[in-house]
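Reminder to self: tokens first, then the designed residues, so the page reads top to bottom the way the pipeline ran.
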């Protein structure tokens, strides 16, 4: 059992500090949230086959590139944060209400599929001997993917505000 102040074992060293503990999992979650938007845009959600394939495939790719992002709770918060901010800031809350509970089912299924894709990506990467990107490169790739995801969420917000979705 480790005590505060003990040296970090080498296998856990990448999770030490703010980058391994919060930045990498948070950026992974935000990047994964863009997969929700992409699946909705190209496949219409969980009722079609294209949406789930985009979710699992994109998350599998994230799992291969990042490896184990670490803190699963931070990944989940990063995934939910853009949507929660959109719900809080979207001026026409009635639009979300008109979409009904199906949207929450789609988001729940989507998040489950993304975590499945991340796990499969980790397993495939380890078995195939694929090494995840090193920390500085992974942070750069994740930051770019998170920026793309954030722009996708802004586009969704604009469509909701203009009333073209509802």
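Designed residues (166 positions):
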């Amino acid at each position: 059992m480790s005590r505060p102040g003990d040296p970090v074992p080498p296998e856990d060293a990448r999770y030490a500090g703010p980058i391994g503990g919060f930045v990498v999992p948070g950026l992974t979650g935000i990047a994964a949230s863009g997969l929700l938007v992409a699946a909705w845009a190209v496949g219409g959600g969980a009722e079609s086959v294209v949406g789930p394939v985009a979710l699992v495939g994109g998350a599998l790719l994230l799992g291969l590139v990042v490896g184990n992002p670490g803190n699963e709770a931070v990944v989940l918060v990063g995934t939910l944060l853009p949507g929660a901010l959109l719900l809080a800031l979207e001026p026409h809350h009635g639009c979300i209400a008109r979409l009904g509970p199906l949207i929450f089912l789609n988001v729940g299924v989507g998040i489950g599929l993304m975590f499945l894709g991340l796990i499969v990506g980790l397993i495939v990467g380890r078995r195939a001997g694929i090494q995840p990107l090193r920390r500085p490169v992974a942070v750069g790739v994740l930051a770019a993917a998170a920026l793309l995801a954030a722009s996708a969420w802004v586009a969704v917000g604009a469509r909701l505000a203009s009333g073209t979705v509802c």
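The chain has a mean pLDDT of 76.
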